Structures are given as C-alpha cells and as structure tokens.
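Reference record:
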Amino acid sequence: MKDLRRYLVLKYVQYLVLSSSNAISTFLGLLGSLYTIVILQSAKVSSKSTAVLISSLAKADILVSVSVVSEMVVWTFDVSISSTAFTSALLQNLLTANVHISCLLLSCVAFEAYLITFFPTESRHLRTVKNATLTSRVIWILVTAECTLFQTDDLLKASSTSAPNRSPCVLLFHFSSTAAALLKSLSYFLGILLRIVNVYIYYKIFFSMSNR
C-alpha cells in the first residue's frame, strides 16, 4: 500500500500540480504505472474500490505509451506518414485523453479518501468495487467521446483547408468546431475546479488526521 500511495502522489504532482507534463514526469509516470499494474496483480492486494480506480489510472498511461512509441518510431526510422496532420492530431488527442482520464480518476480517489476519513460507516455502501468499476467505465466512455469529437474536428479542419470550396459537410464542420471549442473551454475550467477541490479535500484530511 505504501508503493500505491507513492504512485498516487506521483500522479497528483504530474497531473494536478504541474501546469504541463515534461519528459521527466512522463517517464516516471510510465514507470510508476507499469510497476503499479504489476503490484495490483499480486494476491496480497485486496480487491477494493480504491484498487479498481488506481488500476484504471495506471492503464490510462497506455495512451501515453502509444503516443511516445509512435513518435519514437517515426523519428528513429524516419517513417513517412501519408497523413501527417491526422496522425499528429491523433497523438495529441491521445495525450489529452490521458490527462482528462487521470485527473477525473485522481479526483475520484480523493473523494473516496474524504468519505473514508469523515463518513466511513455511512459511505460504505457507496465505496464498492461495482461502483468503482462503473465510475471508471463511465469516465473512459466520456473521454473517448471527447477524443473522438476533437479528432473529427481536426480532420474536418484539415479537409476544409485543402478544399474549402468543395466541402460537402459545411454544417457538420461548423457544428463540430463549435462543440469542440465549447468542450475545450469546459475541460479547462473543469481542470481548474478539480485542482481546487482536490487541494481542499486533502487540506481537510490532513488537518483532521493532525487533530487526531
């Protein structure tokens, strides 16, 4: 459990403290996720709701791995890509999806820690493996839909730039562009809100434990 706590601290620093990820934090995050996945396979780790959320958090780094490996292959072997704009947008959207999934899951872990600290008995029926699994799936589905919208918007922008007067999907282009812009704004403000909420939760937990 100490290793899992260190992993959560690493992820909090990576996604909720740093303004943007760098090479060092990304590398450490990938190593931590790989180690955590191995730990969670051990029979010594009990199957609890927190373990389910942490497992989903670690698996989210698969998106980062795909992006990093793809860029390394292109750079190392000088692979020519037929649709550079599409691939570049896809890799960036995968990184964005990873950040959003990780922030939401970390917030779920923080909320569960809050319930355990202040409402251990009353919240027991909420802190189940079933609810944690459902929450993780909903987060993945929502962020996947978001990533799909961003990718569609990038694709339509590229096609409209290459043939602006021949695009048969002008209405779709405006709709996806507006929806993507609104969603990006919402994600930005939600990210700020999650940072504030997480700081408040751990502030309350820290002083509660200190008083005890």
The chain is about 80% helix and 0% strand.
